[in-house]
Amino acid sequence: MLEHRSFYYLRHGQTEWNLSGRAHGQQDVELNATGRAQAASAIPKLLQTGITAICVSPLKRALETASIISAALQIPTLVVDDLKEACWGECEGARKGAWFEQWKAGVTPVGAEPFDEFIGRGLRGLNTALESGERVLIVAHGGTYWAVESATGVRLEEDAPNCTPIYHSAPSQKGSRWILNAL
């Protein structure tokens, strides 16, 4: 269960592997020039949000994204290990295909993290992040965002876009729903 606190979520900036359609998993791939520019372009959108904490995955692509934003907003970052992307074992670096849909359906590739365990870990990471401040920005991965979708019951039509801040407004009363706003 996700703690009922509003928060911002930002998927890391673009990498060369994003461009080539390769599954990152826990491979420590850095941002490309476009990814760094995307992180910088998110800053004006985040300036007026009142963010008091930035929680980030320990993987380079998320850390670099958070670092660019943190420097501009003058807010320190807290690394939360459970926010890192899923481990896809022998499929890391491969193009997403049948193996990917099978993994989501419960067929785990050799050396990979089972999908349901990944969602549980992601949820722990989200809750850890939400305990770190009143107005939290979480900088992580497209896969980690599936834990957000699972916990809030609200799904994006496509994968979380690189460096588009998404505000998640917690239900204000019992029976109401989470509301998402892309900035």
Question: What labels describe this entry?
Answer:
14% strand; six-stranded mixed β-sheet; alpha/beta; Rossmann fold; 6 strands; 183 residues
Summarize the helices and strands and which ones pair or pack:
Blueprint: E1 7-11, H1 16-20, H2 33-46, E2 53-56, H3 60-73, E3 77-79, H4 98-104, H5 115-130, E4 136-140, H6 144-152, E5 166-169, E6 179-182
Parallel strand pairs: 1-4, 2-3, 2-4
Antiparallel strand pairs: 1-5, 5-6
Short description:
Helix content is 36%, strand content 14%. It has a 6-stranded mixed sheet with strand order 3-2-4-1-5-6, with helices on both faces. It is of the alpha/beta class and 183 residues long.
Write up this protein.
The chain has a single domain (7-182), classed as Rossmann fold (3-Layer(aba) Sandwich), CATH 3.40.50.1240. The chain has helices at residues 16-20, 33-46, 60-73, 98-104, 115-130, 144-152; strands spanning 7-11, 53-56, 77-79, 136-140, 166-169, 179-182. The protein starts with 6 loop residues before the first strand and ends with a strand. The protein is an alpha/beta fold. The relative contact order is 0.24. The protein has a 6-stranded mixed sheet with strand order 3-2-4-1-5-6, with helices on both faces. The chain is globular, with a radius of gyration of 16 Å. Helix content is 36%, strand content 14%.
